Amino acid sequence: RFQPAAGLMERIQAIAQNVSDIAIKVDQILRNSLLNGKVLEGRRDQCEVPRDPKYPDCAGKVEWMRARWTSDPCYAFFGVDGTECSFLIYLSEVEWFCPPLPWRNRTAALPSPPPLPRGPFQSDLARLLELIGTGKESLSFMKKRIRHLAQQWLRAAQRLEQKLKPSLTPLLLSLQILIHIGFLTEESGDVFSPRVLKGGPLGEMVQWADILAALFLLGHSLRVTVSLKDLQSHLGVPPGRGNCPLTNPLPFDLIYTDYHGLQQMKQHMGLSFKKYRCRVRVIDTFGTEPAYNHEEYATLRGYRTNWGYWNLQPTQFMTMFPHTPDNSFMGFVSEELNKTERQFIKSNKVSSMAVVYGKEASIWKVGGKEKFLAILNKYMEIHGTVYYETQRPPEVPAFVKNHGLLPQHEFQQLLRKAKLFIGFGFPYEGPAPLEAIANGCVFLQARFNPPHSSLNHEFFRGKPTSREASPVSSQHPYAEDFIGKPHVWTVDYNNSEEFEAAIKTIMRTQVDPYLPYEYTCEGMLERIHAYIQHQDFCTTSSPPLPPKAKSPAMQSPPSLLALSPNATHLVWSPSASRDPRAWPPVDSLQVWVSETRHACTETCRRRGLVCEPTFFRFLNKKEVFLQLSITCDSTEYEMNHLYPAVAENVHECYLQKEPLLFSCAGYNTKYRRLCPCRDYRKGQVALCRDCL
């Protein structure tokens, strides 16, 4: 037999004693835990709804929870179990309708980390292509476009970076940005992807591809989603039906989306949507006027549509063309030509060759086209790029040489040979005319008489813009107003003599390729950079303090504005303070009074300026009328998107009661409006001269 050593026996006895001690301690812990659980359970059953004037909605929300807490699984996810205390815990810690419970150990939610200073712009576009993902024809189209323009984007980013150095570089921030393209989600129908290969409209996808490239090159960290499931995952949406807030603070500084995505976010973010909507930027092709954006006003005044009433700041909506200064102009890019390409085009243009704007056969159904196409056919060989599968579309006349739907590169080669690019009146405001003009074509379009708007044209009905203030006078108003002859001709297609004369003149006119700076890669990068650096919709801004009065006997302080030297308008007072954070800088402000039939957009345009809605807050004062020698027998504050304004025949002045309704659009023959105008950079209408 083996006799264990005495030392080993002592160790075994010590281990046994330790096990016994541990068992006693575990028993004590369990007893204490059960006791504490009973106390806690007692507390959970004994909560009373607090009566705190700082939380006036608390009692009503508890009543709602009692009746409906089982209506959405998200409440159980956050610990609601039907007891009074669970309601109060949820309403004080997840939502913010009730005061915190004093016996709860609360850990304050960590705020989102501030944006980090960033270094040079990014240049590895292969990383962006990975972020965009696969699985849809629309995504493939966008990636092809980014690849095709990659070198132009990279050169433009280098030029802009040099332009911004050295003073601004330390101030640049790298933001976390979510890009959710809602119209490509299955839940919204995704009608675009199947039509990419069949000649369907590509303008939206062109713009989104360029937005992705610009944001990435500017050095920001992107997440791209085209599915509702991915959106919910990135946002931190709790399981359920969308009635609860997000599980954590929003991890994104900015969200770029569209109207479909906006609706999806509202449905699934609960109260968090209202909290974080100031971070949203809505890509909105045709724009949203303030009268349609304000929910209460739109409902009362008949402006409510399926797309408006979001109560966002109007400049959070970003358009394809700068047709309304109430929104921010996002734009897109067209390909730029180098010197060799420009010279090649000039020497290879065929003066008797025309290309028709319209890839879908339905566009060729326009009434009366036979008449003007017959005239055009007398002078030019007409080419089309209409999609078809097996048989030639019957809508396309036999004398038209139809190439079918062409890849973008081949379509550009066609434009580089053609002299004329002719529109049939639809689609409105697409990217193709700018591409044609950039490739040396003359763009010929029909003049609409009367101009199209929601009052007389079905296309604009239901959209959150009337276009009454800036009616669509042609297929492409931007090309008509901002480019014009010799590159753009707008004529009456119903007047055969005018149409034929235009064709003859165009054929003998030498035109060089032309692309406005704001539609170059550098122009778009510059514009988006300025928006990200300066647009802040999450902090409210107030007018700076007026200058100190010279005499203490003065009852009201002097205005921030002063009469111009020629006494025709108001400018920023030289003695008024200037907030260095104000953007656009207030020095660019000019205040003009409109005619009764003119909106502020037209009033400013006639003076070589652009309306700036962020400046309305400086005009919305009674003393401004006095400075402009306008007699006011009465002055009222009301909600009206035309105010501030004066009804001169009765000497009644009106000030704006609701800042969201400040609008450059709109007019009424009863009123003359006070209009805030500013200067702008040549080729970059979105930015004032000192806005960079």
TrEMBL record:
It holds the Pfam family Glyco_transf_18. GO terms for cellular component: Golgi membrane. It is found in: Golgi apparatus membrane. It is an enzyme of class 2 (transferase). It comes from the Eukaryota. It is a single-pass type II membrane protein. One of its GO terms (molecular function) is alpha-1,6-mannosylglycoprotein 6-beta-N-acetylglucosaminyltransferase activity. GO terms for biological process: protein N-linked glycosylation. Pathway: Protein modification; protein glycosylation. It catalyses: N(4)-{beta-D-GlcNAc-(1->2)-[beta-D-GlcNAc-(1->4)]-alpha-D-Man-(1->3)-[beta-D-GlcNAc-(1->2)-alpha-D-Man-(1->6)]-beta-D-Man-(1->4)-beta-D-GlcNAc-(1->4)-beta-D-GlcNAc}-L-asparaginyl-[protein] + UDP-N-acetyl-alpha-D-glucosamine = N(4)-{beta-D-GlcNAc-(1->2)-[beta-D-GlcNAc-(1->4)]-alpha-D-Man-(1->3)-[beta-D-GlcNAc-(1->2)-[beta-D-GlcNAc-(1->6)]-alpha-D-Man-(1->6)]-beta-D-Man-(1->4)-beta-D-GlcNAc-(1->4)-beta-D-GlcNAc}-L-asparaginyl-[protein] + UDP + H(+). Its EC number is 2.4.1.155. InterPro entries: GT18_cat (IPR026116), MGAT5_Glycosyltransferase (IPR052105). Keywords: Glycoprotein, Glycosyltransferase, Golgi apparatus, Membrane, Signal-anchor, Transferase, Transmembrane, Transmembrane helix. Residues 74-677 form the Glycosyltransferase family 18 catalytic domain. Belongs to the glycosyltransferase 18 family. This is alpha-1,6-mannosyl-glycoprotein 6-beta-N-acetylglucosaminyltransferase. It comes from Charadrius vociferus.
